[in-house]
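We store amino acids, tokens; thus:
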Amino acid sequence: MIDDLIVEVLGGDDFLAQDLGRAHRVYPAPKDEQDRFAGLLTWRALNQLLDTHRLEPPRFRLAIDGTTVPTSEYCQRRTYRRMQPWEAPQPHLVAEQLRAGATLVLDAIEEMHPPIRNLVCGLERHLRTGVQVNSYASWTATEGFGVHWDDHDVIVLQISGAKRWRIYGPTRPAPMYRDVTFEDQAPSEPIDEFTLRAGDVLHVPRGWWHAAAASAGKPSLHLTCGLATHTGVDLLAWLVDELRAEHAIRQDLPRPGDQHGQDSWRAQAAKLVQERLNDPKLISAYFNSRDAAYGAHGGFSLPHAVAEALPTDPSLSVQLVTPRAVTRTGGDTVTLEAAEQRWILDQRAAPVLRILTTGQLTTLGCLAERSATPLEDIAGLIDQLLRAGVLAVWEP
């Protein structure tokens, strides 16, 4: 389903080249595939998350007409001897607010729900950016947030029910979270209005004003996948860090009265920066660096992570938990970079890394067979990656 979402639903490379950050688009579900996202989040699973996690605002919140509902309206304060007090949501009071038109929001749901975590890992691997998924549940035609814009692109997956959307377009191109100005006046008329139904997908670029509301009396459940941006500001900030390797950049600036020294420094700095900007591989290097530094999703592997050594059990399940790991081959070696760490391995490890970096769940036995490597050697490599926090193992 994850690969289908990127390739078959969004269009793969065409989405990156034509739509991402540029245009809104609806991707309707075929009539026989309206339940294609049902496995990502069911109402039962949402209830279980609300029942079993300590969720406090703003991560869990209710909103109506662009205003956050005060927690006093639906929570009860609980105190503990060894924990901080908690404003615990009360199911009957939450339901009362929802009947009155509120929208239920749960942020970063991928951290709590494995099916959505798998979706996020796939999106991050394909799109090479960070992704956070929020869930929204609503029952009435009242808008939870009114007309607003986001500082990141959004991919919306309609899980069940229906949601009415109005798209107004942008008033400031490519706005940022930290910006020099803030646009707070929405356009008066929408440029598009439509209803998303179960299985449909919507892309909304950052900075595009929009509003959404459920059909009256019918529960709507949808996910929004917020895509972190990679802007020129991000690249230049990364480039400044890279230039720390240069003595001319690290040294003290010439004093205000030293005009000759200032002219000399500016010439050196301009030359260094221009050389980097003229490198046709600069942007690729930036993305590779960000990918290699990107962290893990989960990875607890008890009891194996505490053992002296990983057992050589061919049925032991294995999965890389760093979705944007980078591999490079050169000569007789292959290099793996993940979570700001680097391993230089024998070329024989290349088939193992090819399998692991797809993010698929595999086994020690499969890795040994596919790479024609003794099981003991595979277990040693997996144990090393496990202890570095980039890989997880489970019982069959």
Remarks:
- The longest strand covers residues 162-170.
- Residues 304-394 form a domain with the Malonyl-Coenzyme A Acyl Carrier Protein; domain 2 fold (CATH 3.40.366.30).
